[in-house]
Amino acid sequence: MKVQDVKARFEAVNESLQDACDSFRWENADSYVSWMAQTLEYVTYTTRILALTGSSFPLDKTALASRFIQHSTEEKGHEKMLYNDAKALGFNLAQMPTLPEAEAFHKSIYFWIYQNRPAVVMGWVILLEGFAVRNGDKVHARVEKAHGKKASTFLKVHTNEDPGHLEAAFGMLSAFSEKELEDVAHGLELYGKLYGNIFRAVEAAAFPLKKAA
Question: Is the pTM of this model over 0.85?
Answer without folding.
Answer: yes
